[in-house]
Amino acid sequence: MTQRVLRVGVAGAGVMGADHARTLHRFVSGAAVTAVADPDTARAAAAAADAGGARVLADPLELVGAADVDAVVVASPDATHPELAAAALAAGKPVLCEKPLAPTLDGALEVAAAASAPGAPPFAVGFMRRFDPGYAALARALRGGELGRPVLVHHVSRGVAPGPGATSESSVTGSAIHDLDVVPWLLGSEAVEVSWHAPAAATAGEPALVDPQVLLLRTADGALSTVEVFLAARYGYDVRCEVAGSEGAATLPVPARLEVDRDLRHGRVHDPDWRPRFADAYRLQLQAWVDAARGGPVDPALASAADGVAAQRVAAAAIASMRSGRPEAVQR
Fold it and tell me: Which 8-state DSSP code applies to residue 270?
């Protein structure tokens, strides 16, 4: 591995971009954040200041081409991912692209084609749950045969409130996409069919969003998975997973949570969003990506562009089922 520090530019200074910049600066070795770009330059300046005083730019494409940027984290709005990822690849710079790879399957396929071209630099998609210690332990149990043949998976992802302008479709492509990656990854088997379901009159205050949603997912190994995505659960950020096999069952370990006794009540304090819950996963993912970008071995947990396409294919089938009202095959 080269000894030179990897100079990283972060495109996008929203919640996710700012968090990546901060984590790279504070907790990842071998890297330095040299530039942060966002059309909202005040937001970019705040993220840059929290990442060691990186340079501030308004145009993410300018960041991609900057001479003091060796590698790019794409954490801008979903619709901008394909253009920025393709530009960074064309410039020969390693990329970590936040999920989804693109909002549409066609866009994801275009990025994946560029990422798989001969001589392309290292490319990873931000499916950080693969690096979470709890998910990693569950994956080891499954791959070690401790549960026998997996037959059922129950996966739950709940949040406090949806983002502004959320739709039923964006709930799948922007949120459930994590689940659509991690369930097949845990099982080591690709999804082949999905059906979409929702309670009657479900609403989260956004006129175009039906929430919660439940996806029934069949994988090639014959297992059946339920994937619940509930953006407006209100009580806190909560992720759960249970796998039942022919010889046993395992549950995703729950991180330590504060328990409070007060006013004749006992209860747990939930995380307000995904950042505390997956802080270790983001740190480990960024370190693995930096190591690969500096010439080291590629951690097998890093999600590739092909993995991003695979999840997008399942998302496309889920949206097709949302519209047709029947199960839909995952197209290859």
Answer: P
Encoding tokens for residue 56?
A: 């501030």
Average pLDDT per block of 10 residues along the chain, 332 residues long: 84 97 98 98 97 96 97 97 97 97 94 95 98 96 96 97 92 97 98 95 79 97 97 94 98 84 90 93 98 96 98 98 98 91
Strand ranges (E), 135-282: 150-158, 191-197, 213-219, 224-230, 238-245, 249-251, 259-262, 265-268
> Which residues constitute the domain of residue 116?
6-121
- Report DSSP letters for 200-238, one per residue: TT---S-TT---SEEEEEEETTS-EEEEEEETT--S-BE
> What CATH number does residue 175 fall under?
3.30.360.10
pTM of the model: 0.95
For residue 103, whether the previous peptide bond is cis, meaning omega lies within 30 degrees of 0, is no
Report how many domains make up the chain. 2
